[in-house]
Amino acid sequence: MELRHLRYFVAVAEEGSFSVAAEKRLHTAQPSLSRQIHDLELELGVQLFVRGPRGIELTPSGRVFLDHARVALLQVEAAAEAARRAAQPEKSAITIGFLTGYEMDWLPAVMNILRGKLQSTEITIRSEDSPDLAAGLVRGTIDLAFLRPEKHAAGLQFKLLRQDPVLAFMPSDHPLAARSAIRPQDLANEVYVGVSPVRALVLRTAIEGFFKRHGLTIKPAHQAENLAMAVSLIASTGGISLLPLYAQNLLPKTIISRPIQGAPMVDLVIGYNEANGSPMLKFLLSKLDEIKFQVSSRNGR
Fold first, then answer.
1. Are 172 and 255 in a shared domain?
2. How far does the chain reach from its first CA to its final CA, in angstroms?
3. In sequence order, which residues have a C-beta less than 8 Å from that of residue 288 and are 6 or more positions away?
4. Strands 240-244 and 144-147, how do they pair?
5. Are 243 and 169 in contact (CB under 8 A)?
6. Domain range enclosing 109
7. CA separation, residue 95 to residues 24, 73, 119, 159, 210 (Å)
8. Which residues of 105-120 are buried (b: 16+ CB within 10 A; e: fewer)?
9. Same domain, 149 and 217
10. Which of 53, 70, 87 is the last residue of a domain?
11. pTM higher than the cut 0.70
């Protein structure tokens, strides 16, 4: 018994006609089709069709055989599709996360490194707060992230990319905006917009350490949960916030930044789960120095 016997039999059973099956489904001559079905019946030792008042009808044996024939043909199609998929390399995938705002600096360099793999790689980009990025790395929903060194995230490895200075951000018409640099003591009597100890713990710790070193006791009048909220609070309250250099990428024209004398620094790292065996992750990690060079060259740093 050959596969063509099953295809011919199913076509005749579904069309209810030798002539229609031959012409529309099988594109063969009817006498040839009749011979193939006759050979199948001889091999099985049963009659599959009878001629009834409404044309060709299945015998009880034919109805039973039809169910099995359909299953067999489906299995053959599935096997063929599996073979075709196996012959083609699977499309690799990688999910890359960025601390919101850093995409502008680092994503172009990453995409440039991946340019030769774009057709065979599915790339997903996520923009989130640093703790959420770390959680994604732990859960395995993110492969690589540009974030702060979240020390409480078990199983993660971090590689330093650079240290960013913290700047003073204020409305463009603020009295301190006229200065080329802000002294620590200038901040003492200002409305201070702080950052979240949950969403930005690394930054908050660096700022508090800076205040302590300079003998400043500054309590936030407002607290921003994210960068967009910080910008909004600066604009609406006329206050000052201390944010990393990258925040300049997202400023409206009404907000400006000024360097701070003796400014604290915050680390930007690339993080990944040490248990992640993704070949694409290993490839990007191997190109880390090249990514850093591209970013530093573009930014003149």
1. yes
2. 74
3. 159, 270
4. unpaired
5. yes
6. 92-160+269-299
7. 48, 39, 15, 18, 35
8. bbbebbeebbeeeeee
9. no
10. 87
11. no
